[in-house]
Amino acid sequence: MKQDQGWLETTFESISDAVILTDIQGNIQLLSQKAELLTGWTSEEALHKPLTEVFQLLNADTYEVLGGSMLSVLKTGKNIVFAKNAVLLSKTGEKRPVKSKSKPVKDKDNHIQGIVLVFKELARKNKKLAKAEFLSFHDPLTGLYNRKFFEEEFKRLNTERNLPISLAIIDIDYLDEVKKSFGNAEGDNLIKRVAEIIKQECRVDDIVARVSENEFMILLPKTNSKQADILVNRINDLVDKEKLGALNLPLSFGCESTKKKENEIALIYKEAAEKTPPLKSTAKNRPTNVLIEIIMETLYHKNDMEEKESAQVSEFCAEIGQTLELSEKNIENLEMFGLIRNIGKVSLDSRILHKPDKLTDSEMAEIKRHPELGHEILSTMNEYAHLSDYVLAHHERWDGKGYPKGLKGEEIPLEARIVAIADAYNAMTSSRPYRKALDEETAAEEILKNAGTQFDPHLAKVFVEKVLGKEHIK
To answer: Which helix (H) or strand (E) holds 358?
Structure first.
């Protein structure tokens, strides 16, 4: 028998077309190398599997399954030919136009023993059509399968031999905020890297799909709940350790298994999703400063002076608030505002932030966007949305010549007027690539000199005399 099988394999490989041989039950016995290439299955994977599971033939227009009729050869003994308008759906989801012919294999007494299927790929007439076919089953950003294909695969794999089947759901938390803060490109890079990690941790037979903007699903044949939990925890640990770019975002996930072939994917998905919310709540109901910290750490990475200077501005703001006898809550807001006033700079080009020379007009225009960018970031976060208007206004001037709105006098929020003074003083007393730091006396004089034009005159006097303790300066 082994000699016969070896002879068959040698014969198959000498044929220019792809060949599959089945037994009397329609289960695969041999798969030629060309058949492996076109179906995406290896001989070892395909051995003893039903022909219709490996050779998935579809109508090119309607995607109706055609392969089942091939098995009628076992009953009728008649050849079945699909010469046109048929596509082979490979294991990887690619659809290839093919021509196929299945014939009965008979013994010397003329009894049917199985099927020999011979097929070949037809030339693609339209590259755009081929690309469209690929995209019909794949997510264009990650190359993973899409929801449509995922659901079809569940139907195909939901057989007794694959039970238990597990479904894992993985969400990327804060993705919307990341895209608003860092841009769509950074968000897309994060999605792609998470997709790569998920794919590398899954087995060949697992089906991985991106089913929405921030949600992935994994179909795990012959996998129980405990095994699925181990997998998603391993994925979560890898994502957590990697720090994608400058970001380190939490994932939410849930798993559900079924041991019943009758269960549909909608039911398993519902049960998996019900297990996911507690994890999502843990991540998404944390104080929003988790995301603030992520963004600010990214900004500090881009501009190493920012962390120290923000801490100093925050301290000055608190001292001004205490001198004005503001409420404890308002002073806390001022401290936080001082820390995150430049949060919008996270979206700016590092080359501009680090440029040692004078900025060009276009570069200065870009820098002046940071209050608006900061406003956009904070306005999406419930816990800090109330600070967004202060961030927007912290470069306005008392005389109305500031930006971005040209607000004047007390039109400018009190908090923004306070930060403007603390920020300016800190900037003057800090070294820059293009100038040396001013001494404290000179910087205080500059604050008073610009009182009534750049700064609120009352607050400027309070800051210099009460906070800095320089009452002698006039």
So the answer is: none
User: What spatial distance separates the first Cα and last Cα of the chain, rounded to whole Å?
Assistant: 107
Per the structure block, which two tokens stand in for 250? 């939490």
Structure tokens at 64: 């109706």
Closest CA to 445 of 410, 416, 473: 473
- What CA–CA distance (Å, rounded) separates 46 from 23? 13
- Helix, strand and coil in the chain, % to nearest 5: 50, 15, 30
Alpha-carbon dihedral 392, 397, 401, 406, rounded to 10 degrees:
30
Name the DSSP letter for residue 61: T
pTM assigned to the model: 0.52
**Spatial contact of 73 and 26, defined as CB atoms under 8 Å apart:** no
Query: Measuring CA to CA, which residue among 148, 277, 160 is closest to residue 222?
Result: 160
Using the structure block, give the residue that is written with the tokens 């006098």.
409
Task: Dig out the tokens for 339 from the structure.
Answer: 């820390």
Of 139-143, 183-187, 221-225, 405-409, the range with the highest mean pLDDT is 405-409
Q: How far apart are CA 431 and CA 420, in angstroms?
A: 18
Contact 303, 337 (CB under 8 A): no
Tokens of 152: 């079809």
Report the distance separating Cα 222 and Cα 157, nearest Å.
10
Signed CA dihedral, 189, 191, 194, 200: sign only = negative
Map tokens 């962390």 to a residue: 307
Helix axes 127-137, 147-157, angle to 10 degrees: 70
- DSSP, collapsed to helix, strand or coil, labels residue 184 as helix
Residue 117: enclosing H or E segment and its boundaries?
strand 112-121
Give per-residue pLDDT as tens, 144-177. Answer: 999 988 888 888 788 888 889 999 999 988 788 7
